[in-house]
Every structure is written in C-alpha cells, then in structure tokens.
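Feature request, filed as a ticket because there's no other form

It would be nice if the structure record came with a short human-readable summary line next to the tokens. Right now we just get the raw output. Example of a typical job, pasted below so the devs can see what we mean:
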Amino acid sequence: MAAAAAAPVWSVDPRSGKRREQVAVEATAAEVDAAVGAAHAARASLADRDVRAAFLRRAADVLEEAGDRVIEAADAETALGPGRLTGELGRTTYQLRAFADIVAEGAFLDVLIDHADPALAPPRPDLRRYKIPLGVVAVYSASNFPLAFSVPGGDTASALAAGCPVVVKAHPDHPATSELCVALLRRAAADVGLPQGVVSLVHGFQAGVDLVRHPLITAAGFTGSVRGGRALHDAAAARPQPIPFHGELGSLNPVVITEAAAAERAEEIGAGLAGSVTLGVGQFCVKPGLVLAPEGEAGDRLLKSLTAAVSDSEAGVLLDHRMRDAFVDGVRARAELPDVHAPVTPGAGGEHSVSAGFLAVPATRLAAEGPHDLLLEECFGPVTVLARYADESEIGAVLARLPGNLTATLQLGDEEGAGTDAEGRGARLLADLTPLAGRVVVNGWPTGVAVAPAQHHGGPYPATTSTSTSVGGTAIERWLRPVAYQDAPPALLPPELREDNPLGLPRRVDGRAEGA
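Raw output as currently delivered:
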C-alpha cells in the first residue's frame, strides 16, 4: 500500500478563521529522527563559548533586521497587534543578547575547586567541578508568545547558551512565523560558521510526541496547557532513560486585596486590575484569575471601579477559534453556578471575537470542595473571578485550597506595607502567599515578566513541573549538569578546571572566590 500523504500545516487568520497558506507538512517519525540526529551531530560545534556568544548576538541582529517581516507574519497568525509584537520582538532580542553576555562571562559554569588536603579527617582528595551541556534539547513553542516563548524565545536562547542544540516543535497557531524565525536563526548560525543542525523545526502533534520520546533528546522545555504539558511530562518520565521536562502548564495567579488597601485606593486598584486582566485579551500566563476582595463599602467602591474599567474595554480576538470556543463555554459554565453573578458579562463579542468581563462570588463558596471548584481553574481569556470575603479567616480558607501558581499578588494599605499596622497583616499575608507561587507581587500587577537576573518565572505544580525558571539568566541551568573530577592529572583536565585558569573564568577555590 502507498504511504498516506503527509498532513498539511496551514497558517490561519484568527480574525476570520480562514486559511492563509499552507506552510509545511507535519513531520514524520523519520523526519523527526533526522532533525534530532543533525542536532546531535552539531553538539561539538557549540563547544566554543566565544562562538556561542557570537551566534546569539548575530541571531538578535538578524531578527531585528527582519523585524517588519517577523511582526507582519506574527500579527497575521495571532492578531496580537503590531504594538504588542514590536515589544515582544524587543524582549526576544534582549534575551538573546543577555544570554550572550552570560556565556561570555562564564559564571554559569559554576566552577568549584577544592585542593587536596591530607590533614583533614578523612583526607580530602583534589576535586574540581563545573557544569556541562546535557545535549539536544526539545523546545515546545507557546501559543500566546509567538516570539519570546517560541522558536527564538527564552527556552531556545538559554539552551543554545548552555551549548545544547535545539529542535523546536512549532505551535500550530503560528507556523509561518515559526518557519520564518527558524530560517533567520539558521542564517545567523551560518554567519558565525555553525551548522544548520544547531536549531531545527518540526510540525505536528505526533512529531511532538516522537520528539520527547527520541533517545537522543536529553531535556525538554514546554509552555502550554496542563493537559498537553502533563502528557508530555509523563512521556518524558516513561522513557527507558527519563529526561528532565521543564513545563509551564497553568496558573490562576491569585490576588489578595486587603480592606485597608481597598479603603485607601479602591479606584486605582479597580482600574489596575482591569488593565491586567484584559491585557493582550487576557492571554497572558500570569493574568490574575482569582481576586479576593473585601465585602463592605471599600470593596463596593473597588467593584464599581472594576466594572467601569472592564466595561470600557473593547472586544478582542483570541489566538484561535478553539480557544475562543473554550473561553465562551468556560465562562458560561462558571456563570451558571449558584451565587455567581456577572457585573460585566464575559463571552462572545462577535463571530470571531470575545468580550471581557468578570464574575463575582462569596468567598465562602470557594472554601470547601464542590461545584464551585471550577472557579479555581484557569480560564484562558479576558475574565477573572472576584471573591468577596468577610474576614481574614475566609482569605486563609480559600488560599488553602489553591494549587501552585506562577504568581501571587498582594495589595496592601500604607501601614500594612510599612509593617506598622498593629495586626502585622502585611507580613502574615506575604507569608501565606509565598508557598503558593514562584513570584509574589506587592502593590503591583503580575502581567509583565521582566527579563532580569533575579527573575523567577515558575512555581509549584501545576504552574511548572520543575523548580527552575524559564525567564532570566538562571534559566540556563535547566540544560546543564555538574561533573566533578577527582585527582585527575593536570594535563587531562578541561581548561575550565586547570590551575592557571587560562580562560579567566570566575571560580571558587577552597571555598573562596578566586582572587578575593
């Protein structure tokens, strides 16, 4: 029998739901194997840190040079808009250059040297430790960030910085953008003398499964849904040789607003919350999905402000019609629960769009297991749940039922923030939120994840499947493993561990920073 024809991969306009063009075909198992094999063969080409840094910088330059084409392609497939995508492209190129700087500095290698000391009991041998790249990394692109969390995004940049070739599984919502970006990355690779196999792209659901199961894949990075991420996580764990799976899956991102905060700035908080919930049509992974706000006059003022601000927001287009249908069905199911009402009704804004809104419910409805648990699940799109509490015990009862999150936000009054309130509420609530999230925001909003060395974008499950971050310089640690050499002859040591430090790396020797 003749082999079945490969399934076409279409670029679709979410504003109309119509196909734009056929971009590619779904990769077969043989094509996935070829991409992984080429990446595996390219590992040695990334051994030179100077070459890696030059590649990352050149990749940033090439993306900027093609910026108009990249933004046009991404907007056509995602409807995110040129303004948002221009900012995302800037974030993407900044990440690439930031990782180039990290590679050039070399501290990420975490070089530790302990000289032999026969006087210790027991005697200590000569030990020299640093980190090496794992090997070929699989990256699964995100739907909502076609650049910064996709082909040229943080997972790819950090893996390449670590010295790991990458095979990216494209997201079906932006295949044309993915093809353009991988071509640009490959051009940058060629410009610095690297083989094209250092970064490859495959399309198709089965290709994603085949990729995580491939024996030459040594780790994976994923941004997407709980269902899809958990399936890939389990596949990675079920391999004969399990591999690390760094997945970002789902997050409710709770917000706690104290009565003092509402009394002092209800209007400001209401407007800020509306902006955070509706930003990017509610398609940010750190969108506030649950807000604990006080009952009473201050809470009523906040609700009024939130109502006005959300009512003023325009209908928007989600990334695809499947997400639109899930949003419409999800908010309808939530709104039908007992004691839930919609001050601003979210739902279908038109044939291809959605309108923002929010639901309100007594916090007591969320304090015990029941049908209202649906309100404690992420609903992707421009909606949040405002849970009104009578006292602090109701806050604690709801927080105790929440799963892990990327973020948790605390809005405090002036004295609470200064730690001068008699009850010590600010410190107590901060301590209550800390176990729930990887980033705790005070008197701000979680949308917007700064690319910075101290950033942490991760959290307890199901926010992520590991304790690592996917944003910031320490994201590189996901793709490295430590190795220690004991009593190795000096002539055989890698340059990073030699006594004379020929590469000029920052190192700790016998417990002290070298040169200190």
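Something like this underneath would help us a lot:
The mean pLDDT is 97.
DSSP finds 14 helices and 21 strands in the chain.
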